[in-house]
Amino acid sequence: MTELIILLIVIVTALAFDYTNGFHDTGNAMATSIATGALKPKVAVGLSATLNLIGAFLSIEVATTVAKGVVDLQQFDLNNSYDAHRLLLVVFAGLIGGIVWNLLTWLLGIPSSSSHALFGGLIGAALASLGMGGVVWTGVLAKVVIPALASPIVAGLVATVGTALVYFFTNRVVEERKNRYFRWGQIGSASLVSLAHGTNDAQKTMGVIFLAMVATGHLHQDATIPFWVKAACAIAIAVGTWMGGWRVIRTLGKGLVEIDSPQGMAAEMSSAAIILTSSHFGMALSTTHVATGSIMGTGLGRKGAEVRWGVAGRMAAAWLITLPAAALVGCSTWWLAHGVGFFTNDMVGVLAAFAVLLGLSGYIYMQSRKAPVHSGNVNAEWDEDGTSTPDVTASTPRKEALSS
User: Fold this and answer.
1) Pairwise CA distance, residues 15 & 231, whole Å
2) Residue 211, domain extent
3) To 5 degrees, how large is the angle CA 261–CA 262–CA 267?
4) Higher pLDDT, 27 or 350
5) Is 381 within a domain?
6) Residue 402 domain-assigned?
7) C-alpha torsion 273→277→278→279, nearest 10
8) What pLDDT shows up at residue 194?
């Protein structure tokens, strides 16, 4: 009974991560469409949520990578209750590492990688539990690290060329007419990115829940992922997307490049092509890295466009520390739960770690209330000092303020 309750806590935590993944990454699909006015903010997040839901059912290749390509399951004797609990604790601590990093970067308006936050958390927890042998380093290198380095560069190059070609072939078209037609095109391209996002990011949580169920003996490690796991993860990421991660949307839509509709469509088509390709091959890349590389590429591909390199530099710094920072949280959480459990019992250890997660989440949320970003001010002019959060007056409607 204790193991079952712990499993339920882990599944709830996994779905909470999926929820944060949803609102943290909404901007990957919809930031440019919102910035150019192709879609109204709330329409954009509603459309994105629906397509994320559908996309989550289209592929399981990435879920397989997460379930079997990061933590070395061969290091655990799952017929031994102690080893089974250790694997369950690795999954739980890894999830907390991912959630904490997602919330912190959301608060700061930094479009960091939810995927790498999750992988970092799992790696840190596995190292704490088993040492270097607990991680499938070849899998991490081939399907996480290399795609992480290559994807923003490839996306940027594709978007640069695409943007340059778009403006070359339409340079005689009246600007107002050009933007009007490309706004219509953006609805389709942004929708494709949302669908692609569902095929990649929702899968990661499916893989984590699969790991937890393998640890408790509810599934064999060679089994297929149950439908209810797919459905729960699809719904969680869709609800998170619908809430709208306005702080990150603002940075991507207004902070990197002042973007027009032709650039927006070029960025979205580049992102969709790369994300769908990676999902097909089971590469759990960061959709954030792809979307950011594409948006920066549109700034380089359009003559006279401004790229805010200071903002890009802060984002790159966050990318570099995502894996180690989330790993540190995952490692610390494992030792907290394991240490408390050693002196009391396993349930108390897990509840202690869960309480810390709730406390940190509440604190970050309260900090975000001091300068809320919502659908009403997400397109405000970017401050000259490069901050992502616009000024908020006392007249901000309470209903809108609760939407960030």
Assistant:
1) 11
2) 1-370
3) 95
4) 350
5) no
6) no
7) 100
8) 87
- Mean pLDDT for the stretch of residues 107-125: 89
- Count the residues in the chain: 404
Count CB neighbours of 239 within 10 A.
17
Token couple for 262: 């032709």
- Name the packing angle between helices 175-215 and 227-243 (round to 10°): 140
Closest CA relative to residue 270, chosen from 300, 250, 240: 300
The predicted structure's pLDDT at residue 336: 96
Residue 171's alpha-carbon distances to 57, 230, 381, in angstroms, are 41, 46, 27
Number of domains, the chain: 1
The string of DSSP codes covering 197-245 is HHHHHHHHHHHHHHHHHHHTTSS-TTSPPPHHHHHHHHHHHHHHHHH--
Burial 78-116 (b: 16+ CB within 10 A, else e): eeeeebbbbbbbbbbbbbbbbbbbbbbbbbbbbbbbbbb
Average pLDDT for the chain: 84
Residue 319 to residues 117, 150, 185, 287, 312: CA-CA distances in angstroms? 10, 13, 31, 12, 10
Whether residue 293 lies inside any domain: the answer is yes
Is residue 302, in this structure, part of any structural domain at all?
yes
Structure tokens at 12: 């709830």
Res. 235: pLDDT tops 50: yes
Q: What angle do CA 217, 220, 222 make, to 5 degrees?
A: 160
